[in-house]
Amino acid sequence: MTLTVQTDLAPMLAGLLAAVLCGVLGGLLVLRRSAMMGDALSHAVLPGLVLGFILTGSRASLPMLVGAGLAALASVGLIALLRRAGRLEPGAAMGVVFSVMFALGIVLLRVAGDRVDLDPDCVLYGVLEAIRWPGVSSLADLTQPAAWAAAPRQVVTLAAVLALALAVLGVMYKQVRLWCFDPALAGAMGLRPGLVGLVVMALVAAATVASFEAVGSILVVALLACPGIAARQLTDRFGPHLLLSGLIAGVAAIGGYLGAVFLPALLGHNQAVSASGSIAVASGLLLLLAIAVRKLRTRLRSRAHAGGIGAQASAAGQARMDAQGV
Protein backbone atom coordinates (compact mmCIF):
# COMPACT_ATOMS: atom_id res chain seq x y z
CA MET A 1 0.00 0.00 0.00
CA THR A 2 1.06 3.59 -0.59
CA LEU A 3 0.06 6.94 0.82
CA THR A 4 -1.91 9.31 -1.39
CA VAL A 5 -2.96 12.88 -0.78
CA GLN A 6 -6.51 12.12 -1.88
CA THR A 7 -7.12 9.31 0.61
CA ASP A 8 -4.65 9.93 3.44
CA LEU A 9 -4.13 13.69 3.88
CA ALA A 10 -7.45 14.42 5.61
CA PRO A 11 -7.48 11.44 8.02
CA MET A 12 -3.83 11.93 8.91
CA LEU A 13 -4.38 15.64 9.56
CA ALA A 14 -7.50 14.95 11.65
CA GLY A 15 -5.63 12.33 13.68
CA LEU A 16 -2.71 14.69 14.23
CA LEU A 17 -4.93 17.58 15.38
CA ALA A 18 -6.92 15.34 17.72
CA ALA A 19 -3.72 13.85 19.14
CA VAL A 20 -2.04 17.18 19.86
CA LEU A 21 -5.23 18.65 21.31
CA CYS A 22 -5.88 15.73 23.67
CA GLY A 23 -2.17 15.30 24.43
CA VAL A 24 -1.68 18.86 25.67
CA LEU A 25 -4.88 18.94 27.74
CA GLY A 26 -4.22 15.45 29.05
CA GLY A 27 -0.79 16.66 30.15
CA LEU A 28 -2.51 19.17 32.44
CA LEU A 29 -4.66 16.43 33.95
CA VAL A 30 -1.58 14.27 34.55
CA LEU A 31 0.18 17.12 36.37
CA ARG A 32 -2.98 17.63 38.43
CA ARG A 33 -3.01 13.89 39.18
CA SER A 34 -6.47 13.73 37.62
CA ALA A 35 -5.79 11.61 34.54
CA MET A 36 -8.87 9.54 35.35
CA MET A 37 -10.98 12.69 35.08
CA GLY A 38 -10.19 12.82 31.37
CA ASP A 39 -11.29 9.20 31.06
CA ALA A 40 -14.46 9.99 32.97
CA LEU A 41 -15.31 13.03 30.87
CA SER A 42 -14.58 11.29 27.59
CA HIS A 43 -17.20 8.67 28.50
CA ALA A 44 -19.61 10.88 30.41
CA VAL A 45 -20.21 13.36 27.57
CA LEU A 46 -21.74 10.66 25.36
CA PRO A 47 -25.34 11.17 26.61
CA GLY A 48 -25.01 14.89 25.91
CA LEU A 49 -23.77 14.19 22.39
CA VAL A 50 -26.64 11.84 21.66
CA LEU A 51 -29.23 14.26 23.06
CA GLY A 52 -27.77 16.98 20.87
CA PHE A 53 -28.22 14.69 17.85
CA ILE A 54 -31.74 13.75 18.88
CA LEU A 55 -32.90 17.34 19.43
CA THR A 56 -31.34 18.81 16.29
CA GLY A 57 -31.22 15.82 13.94
CA SER A 58 -27.75 16.81 12.73
CA ARG A 59 -24.08 16.50 13.60
CA ALA A 60 -23.54 20.25 13.82
CA SER A 61 -20.71 21.12 16.19
CA LEU A 62 -22.60 23.68 18.31
CA PRO A 63 -25.40 21.43 19.64
CA MET A 64 -22.84 18.67 20.15
CA LEU A 65 -20.65 20.99 22.19
CA VAL A 66 -23.55 22.35 24.24
CA GLY A 67 -24.92 18.88 24.99
CA ALA A 68 -21.49 17.51 25.87
CA GLY A 69 -20.74 20.51 28.03
CA LEU A 70 -23.93 20.05 30.02
CA ALA A 71 -23.21 16.35 30.42
CA ALA A 72 -19.66 17.11 31.56
CA LEU A 73 -20.88 19.61 34.15
CA ALA A 74 -23.47 17.12 35.38
CA SER A 75 -20.77 14.45 35.65
CA VAL A 76 -18.44 16.69 37.64
CA GLY A 77 -21.31 17.54 39.98
CA LEU A 78 -22.24 13.89 40.41
CA ILE A 79 -18.63 12.95 41.17
CA ALA A 80 -18.44 15.65 43.82
CA LEU A 81 -21.79 14.56 45.27
CA LEU A 82 -20.73 10.91 45.50
CA ARG A 83 -17.44 11.83 47.13
CA ARG A 84 -19.16 13.89 49.81
CA ALA A 85 -22.44 12.08 50.38
CA GLY A 86 -21.21 8.56 49.71
CA ARG A 87 -17.75 9.05 51.20
CA LEU A 88 -16.17 7.43 48.14
CA GLU A 89 -12.59 7.71 47.00
CA PRO A 90 -12.14 10.03 43.96
CA GLY A 91 -11.26 7.11 41.67
CA ALA A 92 -14.29 5.10 42.76
CA ALA A 93 -16.63 8.08 42.31
CA MET A 94 -15.29 8.77 38.83
CA GLY A 95 -15.53 5.10 37.89
CA VAL A 96 -19.18 4.92 38.93
CA VAL A 97 -20.17 8.14 37.16
CA PHE A 98 -18.44 7.58 33.84
CA SER A 99 -19.60 3.95 33.65
CA VAL A 100 -23.24 4.89 34.25
CA MET A 101 -23.12 7.91 31.94
CA PHE A 102 -21.46 5.95 29.15
CA ALA A 103 -24.00 3.14 29.50
CA LEU A 104 -26.79 5.74 29.35
CA GLY A 105 -25.26 7.14 26.18
CA ILE A 106 -25.15 3.68 24.56
CA VAL A 107 -28.80 3.09 25.48
CA LEU A 108 -29.78 6.44 23.98
CA LEU A 109 -27.83 5.56 20.83
CA ARG A 110 -29.81 2.35 20.43
CA VAL A 111 -33.14 4.03 21.17
CA ALA A 112 -32.46 6.88 18.74
CA GLY A 113 -30.82 4.69 16.10
CA ASP A 114 -33.82 4.92 13.75
CA ARG A 115 -34.10 8.70 14.13
CA VAL A 116 -30.48 9.86 13.92
CA ASP A 117 -27.75 8.76 11.53
CA LEU A 118 -25.24 7.85 14.22
CA ASP A 119 -23.48 4.49 14.45
CA PRO A 120 -22.38 3.30 17.91
CA ASP A 121 -19.22 1.88 16.34
CA CYS A 122 -18.45 5.37 15.07
CA VAL A 123 -18.56 6.68 18.63
CA LEU A 124 -16.29 3.92 19.93
CA TYR A 125 -13.75 3.63 17.12
CA GLY A 126 -14.21 6.78 15.03
CA VAL A 127 -14.29 7.04 11.25
CA LEU A 128 -10.80 8.36 10.67
CA GLU A 129 -10.22 6.47 7.43
CA ALA A 130 -13.52 7.70 5.97
CA ILE A 131 -12.62 11.40 6.19
CA ARG A 132 -12.05 12.88 2.73
CA TRP A 133 -11.07 16.32 1.45
CA PRO A 134 -13.16 17.01 -1.68
CA GLY A 135 -11.28 18.58 -4.54
CA VAL A 136 -7.82 17.85 -3.13
CA SER A 137 -5.88 15.22 -5.08
CA SER A 138 -2.40 16.73 -4.71
CA LEU A 139 -0.56 19.13 -2.42
CA ALA A 140 -0.71 21.76 -5.16
CA ASP A 141 -4.50 21.90 -4.75
CA LEU A 142 -4.00 23.28 -1.22
CA THR A 143 -2.86 26.58 -2.74
CA GLN A 144 -6.40 27.18 -3.97
CA PRO A 145 -8.82 29.02 -1.64
CA ALA A 146 -11.65 26.79 -2.84
CA ALA A 147 -9.88 23.75 -1.42
CA TRP A 148 -9.74 25.26 2.04
CA ALA A 149 -13.40 26.25 1.78
CA ALA A 150 -14.19 22.56 1.27
CA ALA A 151 -12.02 21.36 4.17
CA PRO A 152 -13.55 18.41 6.09
CA ARG A 153 -15.77 19.41 8.98
CA GLN A 154 -13.82 17.23 11.40
CA VAL A 155 -10.53 18.92 10.50
CA VAL A 156 -12.02 22.41 10.79
CA THR A 157 -13.60 21.64 14.16
CA LEU A 158 -10.42 20.10 15.57
CA ALA A 159 -8.28 22.97 14.32
CA ALA A 160 -10.66 25.53 15.85
CA VAL A 161 -10.77 23.79 19.25
CA LEU A 162 -6.98 23.36 19.25
CA ALA A 163 -6.49 27.06 18.49
CA LEU A 164 -8.96 27.95 21.25
CA ALA A 165 -7.24 25.67 23.77
CA LEU A 166 -3.77 27.04 22.98
CA ALA A 167 -5.04 30.61 23.19
CA VAL A 168 -6.70 30.02 26.57
CA LEU A 169 -3.61 28.27 27.95
CA GLY A 170 -1.43 31.10 26.68
CA VAL A 171 -3.57 33.75 28.37
CA MET A 172 -3.99 31.76 31.62
CA TYR A 173 -0.51 30.23 31.69
CA LYS A 174 0.36 31.39 35.22
CA GLN A 175 -3.05 30.50 36.65
CA VAL A 176 -3.07 27.05 35.06
CA ARG A 177 0.46 26.30 36.28
CA LEU A 178 -0.45 27.17 39.87
CA TRP A 179 -3.71 25.21 39.57
CA CYS A 180 -1.69 22.14 38.56
CA PHE A 181 0.93 22.34 41.31
CA ASP A 182 -0.42 24.42 44.20
CA PRO A 183 -4.14 25.32 44.15
CA ALA A 184 -3.94 26.62 47.74
CA LEU A 185 -1.27 29.16 46.76
CA ALA A 186 -3.31 30.12 43.71
CA GLY A 187 -6.31 30.78 45.95
CA ALA A 188 -4.20 32.82 48.36
CA MET A 189 -3.03 34.93 45.42
CA GLY A 190 -6.63 35.54 44.36
CA LEU A 191 -6.35 33.53 41.13
CA ARG A 192 -9.58 31.54 41.72
CA PRO A 193 -8.35 27.95 41.16
CA GLY A 194 -11.94 26.67 41.04
CA LEU A 195 -12.65 28.79 37.97
CA VAL A 196 -9.36 27.74 36.37
CA GLY A 197 -10.26 24.09 36.92
CA LEU A 198 -13.69 24.66 35.38
CA VAL A 199 -12.09 26.25 32.30
CA VAL A 200 -9.67 23.35 31.89
CA MET A 201 -12.46 20.78 32.23
CA ALA A 202 -14.53 22.70 29.68
CA LEU A 203 -11.59 22.54 27.27
CA VAL A 204 -11.25 18.80 27.89
CA ALA A 205 -14.96 18.36 27.17
CA ALA A 206 -14.64 20.41 23.98
CA ALA A 207 -11.62 18.35 22.91
CA THR A 208 -13.56 15.17 23.55
CA VAL A 209 -16.50 16.36 21.46
CA ALA A 210 -14.28 17.53 18.62
CA SER A 211 -12.37 14.24 18.58
CA PHE A 212 -15.26 11.80 19.01
CA GLU A 213 -16.43 11.56 15.41
CA ALA A 214 -12.93 11.44 13.96
CA VAL A 215 -11.07 9.08 16.27
CA GLY A 216 -13.68 7.67 18.68
CA SER A 217 -13.81 7.47 22.46
CA ILE A 218 -11.16 4.73 22.82
CA LEU A 219 -8.44 6.82 21.20
CA VAL A 220 -9.54 9.94 23.09
CA VAL A 221 -8.96 8.10 26.38
CA ALA A 222 -5.52 6.92 25.25
CA LEU A 223 -4.46 10.37 24.05
CA LEU A 224 -5.64 12.07 27.23
CA ALA A 225 -3.44 9.78 29.32
CA CYS A 226 -0.44 8.27 27.53
CA PRO A 227 1.34 11.35 26.08
CA GLY A 228 1.07 13.31 29.33
CA ILE A 229 2.32 10.40 31.42
CA ALA A 230 5.17 9.83 28.95
CA ALA A 231 6.17 13.49 29.10
CA ARG A 232 6.12 13.32 32.90
CA GLN A 233 8.83 10.65 32.72
CA LEU A 234 11.12 12.98 30.79
CA THR A 235 10.80 16.39 32.44
CA ASP A 236 9.76 18.08 35.68
CA ARG A 237 9.18 21.52 34.17
CA PHE A 238 5.70 22.78 33.32
CA GLY A 239 6.32 24.37 29.92
CA PRO A 240 8.50 21.57 28.50
CA HIS A 241 6.01 19.05 29.87
CA LEU A 242 3.17 20.53 27.81
CA LEU A 243 5.37 20.77 24.71
CA LEU A 244 6.51 17.17 25.10
CA SER A 245 2.93 16.00 25.65
CA GLY A 246 1.85 17.55 22.36
CA LEU A 247 4.97 16.32 20.54
CA ILE A 248 4.64 12.74 21.77
CA ALA A 249 0.95 12.73 20.85
CA GLY A 250 1.77 14.03 17.37
CA VAL A 251 4.45 11.37 16.85
CA ALA A 252 1.97 8.71 18.00
CA ALA A 253 -0.62 10.00 15.52
CA ILE A 254 1.71 9.99 12.50
CA GLY A 255 3.49 6.79 13.48
CA GLY A 256 0.27 4.99 14.32
CA TYR A 257 -1.39 6.01 11.05
CA LEU A 258 1.63 4.92 9.02
CA GLY A 259 1.65 1.66 10.94
CA ALA A 260 -2.01 1.06 10.10
CA VAL A 261 -1.25 1.64 6.42
CA PHE A 262 1.97 -0.32 5.98
CA LEU A 263 2.28 -2.92 8.77
CA PRO A 264 -0.52 -5.29 7.62
CA ALA A 265 1.07 -5.65 4.18
CA LEU A 266 4.54 -6.13 5.68
CA LEU A 267 3.16 -8.89 7.91
CA GLY A 268 1.40 -10.57 5.00
CA HIS A 269 -2.17 -9.59 5.90
CA ASN A 270 -4.67 -8.06 3.50
CA GLN A 271 -7.21 -7.00 6.13
CA ALA A 272 -7.17 -3.32 7.06
CA VAL A 273 -6.22 -2.19 10.55
CA SER A 274 -8.07 0.55 12.43
CA ALA A 275 -6.05 3.75 12.27
CA SER A 276 -7.46 4.90 15.61
CA GLY A 277 -6.51 1.64 17.28
CA SER A 278 -3.04 1.79 15.75
CA ILE A 279 -2.52 5.33 17.06
CA ALA A 280 -3.63 4.22 20.53
CA VAL A 281 -1.12 1.36 20.43
CA ALA A 282 1.62 3.76 19.27
CA SER A 283 0.89 6.10 22.18
CA GLY A 284 1.20 3.19 24.59
CA LEU A 285 4.51 2.10 23.04
CA LEU A 286 5.86 5.65 23.32
CA LEU A 287 4.87 5.65 26.99
CA LEU A 288 6.84 2.44 27.55
CA LEU A 289 9.80 3.96 25.71
CA ALA A 290 9.67 7.08 27.89
CA ILE A 291 9.64 4.94 31.04
CA ALA A 292 12.65 2.99 29.74
CA VAL A 293 14.51 6.25 28.97
CA ARG A 294 13.81 7.57 32.46
CA LYS A 295 15.04 4.38 34.10
CA LEU A 296 18.17 4.34 31.96
CA ARG A 297 18.87 7.99 32.71
CA THR A 298 18.39 7.39 36.44
CA ARG A 299 20.73 4.40 36.36
CA LEU A 300 23.42 6.33 34.49
CA ARG A 301 23.16 9.21 36.95
CA SER A 302 23.42 6.80 39.89
CA ARG A 303 26.52 5.21 38.41
CA ALA A 304 28.08 8.58 37.71
CA HIS A 305 27.29 9.72 41.26
CA ALA A 306 28.71 6.51 42.73
CA GLY A 307 31.80 6.88 40.56
CA GLY A 308 32.28 10.45 41.73
CA ILE A 309 32.00 9.42 45.38
CA GLY A 310 34.42 6.55 44.78
CA ALA A 311 36.92 8.86 43.12
CA GLN A 312 36.69 11.32 46.00
CA ALA A 313 37.20 8.53 48.56
CA SER A 314 40.17 7.20 46.62
CA ALA A 315 41.72 10.66 46.41
CA ALA A 316 41.19 11.20 50.14
CA GLY A 317 42.78 7.83 50.93
CA GLN A 318 45.75 8.59 48.75
CA ALA A 319 46.15 11.95 50.46
CA ARG A 320 46.21 10.28 53.89
CA MET A 321 48.79 7.77 52.70
CA ASP A 322 50.94 10.58 51.33
CA ALA A 323 50.67 12.48 54.60
CA GLN A 324 51.76 9.39 56.52
CA GLY A 325 54.69 8.85 54.17
CA VAL A 326 53.44 5.47 53.00
What does this structure look like?
The structure is a single chain. With 326 residues, this protein is mostly helical. The chain has helices at 5-31, 35-44, 46-56, 61-85, 90-111, 120-125, 145-149, 153-171, 173-181, 183-188, 193-234, 238-266, 275-323. It is globular and about 65 Å long. The termini are far apart. The mean pLDDT is 81.
Task: Detail the topology: elements first, then pairings.
Blueprint: H1 5-31, H2 35-44, H3 46-56, H4 61-85, H5 90-111, H6 120-125, H7 145-149, H8 153-171, H9 173-181, H10 183-188, H11 193-234, H12 238-266, H13 275-323
Helix pairs in contact: 1-2, 1-8, 1-11, 1-12, 2-5, 2-11, 3-4, 3-5, 4-5, 4-11, 8-11, 9-11, 11-12, 11-13, 12-13
